[in-house]
Design goal:
Layout (H helix, E strand, L loop, with lengths): L8 H11 L2 H8 L6 H8 L4 E3 L14 E3 L2 E3 L3 E3 L12 H11 L4 E3 L7 H7 L4 E5 L5 H13 L4 E5 L9 H6 L12 H5 L2 H9 L22 H8 L6 H11 L3 E6 L2 H9 L4 E4 L13 H12 L4 E5 L5 H10 L3 E4 L1 H33 L12 E3 L2
Parallel strand pairs: 4-11, 5-6, 6-7, 7-8, 8-9, 9-10, 10-11
Antiparallel strand pairs: 1-12, 2-3
């Protein structure tokens, strides 16, 4: 199989599994505890059905929407994901270039392996910066100021990672950043010589946006769980979020909102958007899926906030269902990380091309000329 033979999520996943050492693959693939929420994130879309209209003279449907003050060419974009250098040596640069080519947002994690300044030099497309609040407050302020100077269009604050979820696969595989050889991982690295060669012959692994402030996770190998628990501020609260929103002073979202109550409060602190997300099922196992919550949150605040569904999206029909339930757009992480691991920039482009085709085709089949036509009349939830 090569990247051009990948037609869906599972194809990219299988190819990435062949190319990536086990600790790296399982870091993408895994979730918290029993991974119930991880599975539910996608299964939730099966709890409802689309209702098409016929003979609507659709022609060429308009897939575009506007989020964070930017018009994008299709209603899905790349979620902020950490350490993309592990999946392909081009990492965030490959993802940013692919997103720009397809006219949609690239999102950068605080824990990226490329600096925001470098990304601004390689992509002029719309860009979102994702912020983690560290115990060292100077890191937070530095990231906000640099995001402004680097021309990022929007910011989101991740609020569901005050402590790390219990990701048991990482315990079993001995996954750390930067990677280190352990008895568990040695064989897997040995049978993936191309990955090892690329890892060793390209720029050194580092958490580029924070490496000048802390050497943990860059020069000192850490498990992701240990890094989160040592570095992130577990006392973060609504006042901190409001401070960040005001300091950023632009399009701003909370990422990790799952309740109507919190969505309403997000408006009060100055958010322009929320990302309904459970961190890809990697934090609180047993929690609701984002799609389970979209309709209730949209009914409550949809006129006042841009609602983005983040998590579980595997198909174009998932995007149509999310928009029909009240979301303005969707974002996804695992799907593009597998495509990045499977084929670098070309892999991400292949995924976005597939998604664009699926959304376009299914909108025609739905009788929708525009994403604005995807409303509550287009979806029925099963009882």
């Amino acid at each position: 199989m090569n990247i051009n033979d990948c037609y869906n999520f599972e194809d990219f996943r299988k190819l990435a599994r062949k190319k990536l050492p086990s600790p790296i693959f399982n870091y993408i693939d895994g979730g918290a505890d029993d991974e119930i929420t991880l599975r539910r994130n996608s299964e939730a879309f099966d709890s409802c059905d689309l209702v098409p209209n016929i003979l609507n003279n659709v022609g060429e449907p308009d897939l575009s929407t506007t989020i964070f003050g930017k018009k994008i060419d299709m209603p899905i974009f790349l979620s902020p994901t950490a350490m993309q250098r592990l999946y392909h040596y081009d990492g965030d640069k490959a993802s940013a270039r692919a997103a720009e080519k397809f006219g949609t947002f690239y999102s950068m994690s605080s824990m990226a392996n490329t600096t925001m300044e470098e990304i601004s030099n390689v992509s002029s497309g719309p860009k979102l910066f994702q912020l983690y609040v560290h115990k060292d407050k100077s890191i937070t302020d530095d990231l906000i100021e640099r995001s402004k100077r680097s021309g990022f269009d929007a910011m989101c604050l991740t609020v569901d990672t005050l402590v790390a979820g219990n990701r048991e696969r990482d315990h079993r595989t001995g996954f750390t950043t930067p990677p280190k050889l352990t008895l568990q991982s040695l064989i897997s690295f040995a049978i993936h010589p191309q990955w090892v060669f690329n890892y060793l012959t390209h720029p050194k692994f580092e958490l580029a946006n924070v490496s000048k402030k802390t050497d943990k996770g860059t020069n000192i190998a850490k498990s992701v769980i240990d890094y989160v628990n040592e570095q992130y501020d577990p006392t973060m609260n609504w006042k901190d979020a409001e401070y960040i929103a005001k300091k950023w002073d632009g399009p701003f979202a909370l990422k990790g909102v799952m309740s109507v109550e919190d969505a309403k409060r997000a408006i009060d602190i100055g958010c322009t958007a929320i990302m309904i997300s459970n961190h890809g099922g990697r934090q609180l196992d047993g929690s609701r899926s984002p799609f389970d919550q979209v309709k209730a949150i949209s009914d409550a605040v949809g006129e006042k906030l841009e609602i983005i569904l983040d998590g579980g999206v595997r198909r174009g029909t998932h995007v149509l269902k999310a928009l029909s339930a009240g979301a303005k757009a969707c974002s996804f992480g695992r799907a593009f990380l597998f495509s990045l691991g499977a084929g670098g920039q070309h892999g991400v482009e292949r995924l976005l091309e597939n998604m664009h085709k699926e959304i376009r085709r299914n909108m025609i089949l739905m009788g929708c000329k525009s994403v604005k036509d995807l409303d509550a009349s287009k979806i029925i939830f099963r009882k």
